[in-house]
User: Fold SH3 domain-containing protein from Candidatus Blautia gallistercoris.
Amino acid sequence: SLGTEANTSAAAGEGTELTASENCNIRAAADSNSEIIGSLNAGDTITKTGMEGDWVQVEFDGQTGYIFSELLR
Assistant:
């Protein structure tokens, strides 16, 4: 068991509202070098629409975006 260190955003189901644990970028692809299409401030919420590797897929302003899962809870 991973205990309390489990990555809750990765385990969350699609449609779950997640909260940014710190300021983070929303990227066009599940890649830290991809274009930044938006950002969240710590405490902002966003709805998870899927998962790609270590990235949470979200919908942002009608676009599909990706946030590194460890930045969400």
